[in-house]
Amino acid sequence: MSNIKSFLNNFNLSVDEIGAKERAASLASRSIKTESKLWALKTAVSMIDLTTLEGKDSEGKVRAMCQKGIHPKPGDDTIPHVAAICVYPNMIKFAKQALGNSGVHIASVATAFPSGQYPLKLKLEDVKKCVADGADEIDMVISRGEFLSGDYDFVYNEIKQIKETCVNSALQYSEKHKVDREVHLKVILETGELETYDNVRKASFIGMMAGGDFIKTSTGKVQPAATLPVTLVMLEAIRDYYNETGIRIGMKPAGGIKTAKDAIAYLVLVKETLGEDWLTPELFRLGASSVLNDILMQIDKQRTGYYQGADYYSLD
Questions:
Q1: CATH superfamily name and code, 3-304
Q2: Would residue 202 show up in a list of annotated catalytic residues for this protein?
Q3: In terms of pTM, does the model score above 0.90?
Q4: How far apart are CA 153 and CA 4, in angstroms?
């Protein structure tokens, strides 16, 4: 028996799918008082990985998105900057120039995103280049085919080597540029392809055990992407892993998060499952491309009592 299977045996890997759906729906239906809602909306902004992952991405689009991430609503300093800008590897250099010392991180998808169908050697080279170009965070995809075939050692070892490459590449960058540097790894499970909630829970543990700093639902390229029940399953895996090891792992739902109501529902799930310690950008992110403007509209509604028109806000 492999070490991975032995470790997995420490946990109940069976998920009550109906129960997960009912609990997620119940938590999402909770109402929030006005003062708490304004706090939740601003907190959600601070947790967004503002994302563009399209074939038509350009330097201009990335630079504009970076400015939006730094100043979500120009002239209003009460609204925090987003957590990160998430781009393809070729766009890292433009994001780095645009973000400067703003405090907004650069996240790059890598490892043959979104399919993951490249040899490991090429995946590792991809990660090395992303870090050398300035990425602070790597969003990798697991090999779903290997996982579904039951080769958990393959999946574990691949994640582990990618994590080691993040660490070693960050050290090389630090030595070259005389700066302290850490690079965090987000492990994308692509839950829409994992077929069962049991598989989602199992893949979550493998991602954490192999060294992922975050586990992430989706690439956004497969439907269904992030859902509340799947996110709850992953949050419960994070809770159980923490109780077993004392290690805090972050969570990132991504794909399909469109409205402020969606964002707040995810925050409620986190608070009720993991507690307030996880309500920080260091441990929770929202992967999204269009939710920011709706959150800004809701913030203005909380303050003034009425909505601004959509054209009042810059495009994401």
A1: Aldolase class I (3.20.20.70)
A2: no
A3: yes
A4: 7
